[in-house]
Write a structure and sequence with these properties.
The protein is an all-alpha fold and about 375 residues long. The protein is built from 18 helices and four strands.
Length: about 375
């Protein structure tokens, strides 16, 4: 018997010799904007492109990069984690408590970060993946609860960590001439990129974010994958909490107040769809650098710090608007391609909400679904 229309469609997509170029178009916007920011601010003030200032940008945004890397997992999986800022704060306070009772510094760091990851997986991930509660409601609730607990424990005060030299080294020391927070950032994006692009779990995250029910039919354990995505978000937020504790030499109950929304804006700017199933860590890197360079540039040219919140809000609106625009174009293109192929199906059956042609037949090739379209 002849091949089904779905398989034919799959062959057409997989054999497209310039498919990688088409998928890379989503990076043109943030990449071009980043280049434009660099040109404008370097022309206004030469210090902007000075090596020391570039290091300042990377170091000061290392926590944002860590949180955004974890947020990328959640958003590709079709969700969003509002609690990452509170998890950051909670990790710092937990670290201070462990050190206060005599736990060795390196062991305290490992325990604090692992607890953040377990919280994301066992609380957020379980309630969203298995109890099937709305991800915004769950993460808003856990954000409020953890933030309240942090204030109860600290009484709203900042806890000093200055007498623990290993903690201070995490935020201020250099390794091979590069600040340690930058190494944390590099390690995070490499781990996230490899996991999302080259592992079966990464492919499963894309499949669940693209079409949850199709992934379930294909044999993917959707609940478990959801737990892993929110566990990753919590784990990276915990790492950010440790880095911030080292940079400040203190555990602050307010350090992550707005970082959840800024990280979300960075991920969206990088081309990850709010609907899930599409995106990658490279775009997140561009989004974080764009926001970091913009805020730093405003400071270099003398604009008040109060304007940074205004700029961040505008960037968030623009990011969501661009995501909706791209999604609308993708749907139209998918409908046109389906019509040309003579396939009488909708977006929900053949592909993810992001619009990549991923037939049901292709999804069952492995227990974790098709290889992601991008990384």
């Amino acid at each position: 018997m002849g091949a089904s229309p779905q398989v034919d469609a799959d062959v057409i997509v997989r054999r497209d010799p310039i498919g990688w170029l088409k998928r890379g178009r989503r990076y043109v916007g943030p990449g071009g904007a980043l280049i434009g920011i660099v040109i404008v601010f370097s022309s206004l003030h030469p210090f902007f492109i000075h090596g020391q200032n570039i290091t300042n940008i990377l170091t000061s945004n290392s926590d944002l990069m860590l949180v955004a890397a974890g947020m990328t997992f959640a958003m590709i999986g079709g969700g969003f984690d509002l609690s990452v800022g509170s998890v950051m704060e909670g990790t710092g306070v937990l670290l201070a408590g462990l050190l206060a009772i005599g736990v060795p510094q390196l062991l305290a760091i490992v325990i604090a970060v692992l607890c953040a990851g377990l919280f994301g997986a066992l609380v957020n991930g379980f309630l969203i993946g298995y109890a099937r509660l709305n991800f915004l409601v769950v993460t808003l609730g856990t954000m409020t609860a953890v933030e309240g607990l942090v204030y109860v424990v600290t009484n709203g005060n900042t806890l000093s960590l200055s007498k623990w030299h290993v903690i201070a080294a995490v935020g201020t020391a250099k390794a091979l001439g590069v600040d340690v927070p930058i190494w944390f950032m590099i390690g995070a994006v490499v781990i996230a990129g490899v996991c999302l692009r080259f592992t079966r779990v990464g492919r499963a995250i894309y499949a669940v974010g693209g079409n949850r029910e199709a992934a379930r039919i294909a044999g993917i354990r959707v609940g478990l994958i959801t737990m892993l995505t929110y566990g990753a978000a919590g784990l990276f937020a915990g790492m950010a909490g440790v880095v911030d504790a080292g940079r400040l030499a203190a555990a602050s109950p307010t350090v992550g107040a707005t970082i959840n929304l800024i990280a979300g804006a960075a991920v969206l700017l990088g081309g990850t769809s709010f609907s899930g199933g599409e995106g990658g860590i490279f775009g997140t890197i561009l989004g974080v650098l764009l926001i970091g360079a913009l805020e730093n540039g405003l400071g270099v040219v003398g604009v008040s710090d109060f304007w940074s919140n205004v700029v961040t809000g505008i960037v968030l609106i623009v990011a969501v608007g661009l995501d909706q625009f791209q999604k609308s174009r993708t749907r139209k293109r998918f409908t046109r391609q389906s019509t040309e192929l003579g396939v009488d199906v909708g977006v929900g059956k053949l592909g993810s909400a992001a619009g990549t042609l991923q037939p049901v037949e292709a999804a069952v090739e492995t227990p974790f679904g098709p290889r992601p379209a991008d990384g």
